[in-house]
Amino acid sequence: MNWYVVLVVLVGLERVAELVVSKRNARWSFEQGGVESGLGHYPFMVVLHTGLLFGCLAESFHRPFIPALGWTMLALVILSQGLRWWCISALGQQWNTRVIVVPGLHFVARGPYKFLKHPNYVAVVIEGIALPLVHTGWLTAVVFTLLNIPLLAVRIRSEEAALNAALVK
């Protein structure tokens, strides 16, 4: 098994860890009266993010590793993972892969949320480009990005509406 396959598997395991945290946080949110919205786009998001991993693997067998590109993109993948977990840590129990908002809580303005409104999506965009390009998977990077643009537009609108309706500013 080559090292790139190991990298993609590790990113997949990171996604499983996110889902474990998400499930725990969803349970807490619902116990606090949380309301879920945006259910329509969630299955597409799951398929797209799973497809990213499979696309990376499939394309890697047909593309060369170009060190200058690969090592730079690997650094971006690592940085995007760090940003993602900084977001998860900053949001605490309010973080979720789904849109579940507990009415009456305050907007989070710590960690990366001090600087950006949706820093987790910066991590998603960087990773969606960088992970495939670690092994010159330009087709996967382009397809994921083009499909992710409208998904993020829907996701962000859904989150904004839910947050503005339920949270204290």
TrEMBL record:
The chain crosses the membrane at residues 41-58, 65-86, 121-147. This is Isoprenylcysteine carboxyl methyltransferase family protein. It comes from Kribbella antibiotica. Keywords: Membrane, Transmembrane, Transmembrane helix. The lineage of its organism: Bacteria, Bacillati, Actinomycetota, Actinomycetes, Propionibacteriales. GO terms for molecular function: protein C-terminal S-isoprenylcysteine carboxyl O-methyltransferase activity. The keyword NADP does not apply. Its main location: membrane. Coiled coil: none annotated. Pfam families: ICMT. It is a multi-pass membrane protein. It is found in: Membrane. GO terms for cellular component: membrane. InterPro entries: ICMT_MeTrfase.
